[in-house]
Write a structure and sequence with these properties.
Two copies of one chain form a homodimer. Chain A contains 13 helices and 26 strands. Chain A is an alpha+beta fold. The first copy, chain A, folds into two domains: about 120 residues, Roll (SH3 type barrels); about 300 residues, Fumarylacetoacetase-like, C-terminal domain (Fumarylacetoacetate hydrolase, domain 2, Alpha-Beta Complex). The longest helix of chain A is centred in the N-terminal third of the chain and has 15 residues.
Chain lengths: ~425, ~425
C-alpha cells in the first residue's frame, strides 16, 4: 500500500543538486510533481521539484533516463497537464519516483546529463497542475464546523448528520488558481441584518480558508462505488487550498442549496502535487472519536484506514498587509493547525463521494474544508478567529482586521516533520486581494 | 440580437430532405447541433439534425460547401465536442445556420453533394455534445420552489432570498449523460424520520426533475461580471435536462452545504443543442412579477431582457414502466409545463452567475431547476406530484407510484409552436432506472 516506506524515504539520502539537502520543502525525499513553464517560454510541461530546481521530465525522458514503468509515467507526466499521469495510479508513479530518487542522489554516475534537465525554479512559472474536471469541497475539519456553526446556530453548531456524513458540496473548477495569482474582491448580493433589501456591492467580509487539497488519480466507473479499502489507491497527491469566501454573499445566498457565488470567484492552490509516497512517513492512526460519537457506517470503515489513514502535517496561515510589506515586516501567522484534525480521512472522502455511484476522474480536486485546531491559535479562517467579525485581530503593524482588506496577501504553508524522517513541505499557497472593479 | 427573425425562420420554407417537412422536432427551421457517431463508427463528430437525418458537418466541409464565417463555424462544429463551436458565439453560428438553411432548402442546386453528407439518424449514436467544464443547477421554477419548499417548510416555502437571488448551486459534470443512457439507482446514507441512525442502502425515494438546460457559448474572464445586456450573447443553446434526485439521500445530507450525492449519480440531457436562433420566434416578455414582489436589482435588470428574454416552450414529462411496456401502453404523461414559469430568464442566470467575477467557459451547462406549472397537472417532479410521497400516482396500467421503480423510464419532451411559425422540438431526454448494485 502507499504507506510503505522504501529507500526513497531514507533520511540519510543526499542529493547532488545544490541546495536540495536541508531544503525546507523539497529535499530528495519529497519529489513532488507539477506543471511549469520554463524561462525559455516553451509551453507548460511536467516537472519535479528538487531544492530550488525543477527537473524537466520531458527533457529527461528525451535523454533516455527512464525505462519500463518509469518511462511510461515520465511520458504521461511530461504533458501540459498531469491528468494522464494521475490516472496511471500508484505503480507507475512509484516506479518514476524510485528512478528520480536514483538520478538525483549523490553519487549518481551521470550527473551532467541530469543537470542538463534542471531549471532554476525561481525563473519558472507554476500552473494549476491538472485540468480539473470537478472540484468538490468537503467540511471535515470538525473544529471549524463547530466554530463556524456556532456563529450561525449557537445552540446546535454541529448538525445531526455531521458525524455520519462526510459533508461536501460541489465547487467551481474554472476559478481554481495557482499560487501567486491575484484574486479580485467579488461583488455580490449583500443584505446586512439591519437592511430590508439586499444591494449589489463589493464584499465587505472577505475571508480565506485553510484547507488540504486532494488530487484524484485513477477514476472510477459511473454507478460503481469505490470500496473504502481501495479508496486510497485513487489518490494521486495533496496540496494546500485556500477556499476564498465572501461571508456576506454566502450568508444571504446559501439557503437552501448551499454556497455558490460566495465561493466561486476564486480558489487558490499550491502548485506542487505532494505524493502519497512522500507523505508515507507522516501517516498516523485516525484519532479516536470522542466518547459518544457513532462509529463510521461500514462503507466508511476500514481497519487499515483507521490504523494509518490520517496524516500529521502542520498547516499554517499567514497574512501580509501592504503596510506590513512597506515596513519590511514578515507575514504574520494567523493560525497553526494540523491535518490530524480532520474528522474523516481522505480515503473516507473518496469512498463517500463515490458511494452513490458518482464517477471520479483523474485530476478531480477535493478540498478538505477548513482545518482548524481545537485551540484558540488554530482557527483556520477569519470568521472563526474574529467570532463572525465581532473581535478584530491586531497585527504587528498596529493594524486590525476583521476580514481581509484590499492588498492583503494570504499565505498558506504546510510542513511534515518528525524524528527519523526528512521534512516534507508543500510549497506556498499564496494570493493577494485586488480591489473590487 | 439573437431574437431577430430572418429567412431561416420562414414557416413556408421547405426542405428536399425526405421527412423533414412537418417533422415534429427537426424541420428546416430548427437545425440543432449535436455530436454523433455514425454507423461506420468513425469517431464522434459534429452534425445537424434535419428530419430523420443528420448532416455530417465534417463531410460537408470537406465537400467545400462552406465559406467565410460559416466555414470557420463548420470547422469548429466538426470536432468531437462542440466546445470550440460554442465559444465562437452568435456571428459564426448564425452564418453557419444561414448556409445550412440554403443547403437543405428545396430547390438547392446541388442536392446530390449535400445528400452524400446525410446519415440516417436512427443508425447514429448521440453523445453529450460538449466537454462540460462546470455544471450549475439553478432553482428558477418558482412553482417548484414553492411546492417543494412546502414539503420541508410548510410555513415559509419560499425563503426570503428567493425573489432577489437566482438561487443556484454547483452540480457534478462528470455524470451528465446523453439521452438513452440507463441510470443506476444510487445507494447512500438514508435516515428515515422514525430511525435514530442512518443506514447505507439503495434510495427508496428516487425522483426525476423536469428542467431546461442552457449551454454556455463564449466564456468570460475571471473577475469580470457579464453585464445583463450582454448576457444573452453568452448562450449557445438549450436542451432538456433530467436532474435525477434521490430524495432520501438528499434530505439527510443537504444541511448545511446543499445537495450533493442525492444528485451527483446522474443527470440526463437531450443531445441536440437547440440554438437561440431556432427559438427566436418563441420569445416572450418576462411574465409580470406578482404584486408585492421586488424588482430585480439593477445588475439583473435589462429592458430588452424584460421585453423578450423569456420563452414559450411547452415541457412534458412522461413515465413508462416495464408493465406498461409489456402491455403495449404508451408513456403516461406526468406533467405538462412551460418555460414561461421561470422566475428568472437565462440571461439573468448568466449575469448572476458571473456577478462575482466567476469565469464562464464554452461548454458550461446550466440547469434551470424544475419548471412546474401553477396547476395540478404541471408538477415537474414526483416529490411535488405526490406531496412528498404521501399520495400515490395511479398509472394507466393500474400500477401506482410514489417514487420511481426499477425499470421505469422517464421521458422529457419540449415543443415550441405558435401560429405563423414552424414548430421546433428538442428531441427526447430519456433514461431508464437500473436496479441498485
Amino acid at each position: 500500500m502507499s504507506g510503505d516506506l522504501d529507500a526513497t524515504h531514507d533520511p540519510a539520502l543526499r542529493s547532488w543538486v545544490p541546495g536540495a539537502d536541508g531544503h525546507a520543502a523539497f529535499p530528495i525525499q519529497n519529489l513532488p510533481f507539477g506543471i511549469f513553464t520554463p524561462p525559455d517560454g516553451c509551453g507548460p510541461r511536467g516537472g519535479v521539484a528538487i531544492g530550488n530546481r525543477i527537473l524537466d521530465l520531458g527533457r529527461a525522458a528525451a535523454a533516455g533516463l527512464f525505462s519500463g514503468l518509469a518511462e511510461q509515467a515520465a511520458a504521461a507526466a511530461s504533458a501540459d497537464t498531469l491528468n494522464s499521469f494521475m490516472g496511471l495510479g500508484a505503480g507507475p508513479r512509484r516506479a518514476l519516483r524510485g528512478r528520480l530518487s536514483e538520478l538525483l542522489r549523490a553519487g549518481h554516475a551521470d550527473v551532467a546529463t541530469v543537470a542538463g534537465c534542471l531549471h532554476d525554479a525561481a525563473a519558472c512559472v507554476l500552473h494549476v497542475p491538472a485540468r480539473i474536471g470537478n472540484y468538490t469541497d468537503f467540511f471535515v475539519g470538525i473544529h471549524h464546523a463547530t466554530n463556524s456553526g456556532r456563529v450561525f446556530r449557537p445552540d446546535h453548531p454541529l448538525l445531526p448528520n455531521y458525524k455520519y456524513v462526510p459533508i461536501g458540496y460541489h465547487g467551481r473548477a474554472s476559478s481554481v488558481l495557482a499560487s501567486g495569482t491575484d484574486v479580485r474582491r467579488p461583488k455580490g448580493q449583500i443584505k446586512p441584518l439591519d437592511a430590508n433589501v439586499p444591494r449589489y456591492a463589493p464584499s465587505e467580509r472577505l475571508d480565506y480558508e485553510l484547507e488540504l487539497g486532494i488530487w484524484i488519480g485513477p477514476g472510477s466507473a459511473l454507478g460503481e462505488p469505490v470500496p473504502i479499502a481501495q479508496a486510497g489507491d485513487h489518490i494521486a497527491g495533496y496540496c494546500l487550498l485556500n477556499d476564498w469566501s465572501a461571508r456576506d454573499i454566502q450568508a444571504w445566498e446559501y439557503q437552501p442549496l448551499g454556497p455558490f457565488l460566495g465561493k466561486s470567484f476564486g480558489t487558490t492552490i499550491s502548485a506542487w502535487v505532494v505524493t502519497p509516497e512522500a507523505l508515507a512517513p507522516f501517516r498516523i492512526p485516525q484519532p479516536a472519536r470522542p466518547d459518544g460519537d457513532p462509529a463510521p457506517l461500514p462503507y466508511l470503515l476500514d481497519a487499515a484506514d483507521q490504523a494509518g489513514g490520517a496524516f500529521d502535517v502542520v498547516l499554517e496561515s499567514l497574512l501580509l498587509t501592504p503596510a506590513m510589506r512597506e515596513a519590511g515586516l514578515p507575514p504574520h501567522r494567523l493560525a497553526v493547525s494540523n491535518t490530524r484534525y480532520m474528522y474523516w480521512t481522505a480515503a473516507q472522502m473518496v469512498a463517500h463521494h463515490s458511494s452513490n455511484g458518482c464517477n471520479l476522474q483523474p485530476g478531480d480536486l477535493f478540498g478538505s474544508g477548513t482545518i482548524s485546531a481545537p485551540t484558540a491559535d488554530g482557527r483556520g479562517c477569519l470568521l472563526e478567529m474574529t467570532f463572525g467579525g465581532r473581535d478584530a485581530v491586531t497585527l504587528p503593524s498596529g493594524e486590525t482586521r476583521r476580514f481581509l482588506a484590499d492588498g492583503d496577501e494570504v499565505i498558506l504553508r504546510a510542513r511534515a516533520e518528525k524524528p527519523g524522517a526528512a521534512p516534507v513541505g508543500f510549497g506556498e499557497c499564496r494570493g493577494r486581494v485586488l480591489p473590487a472593479l
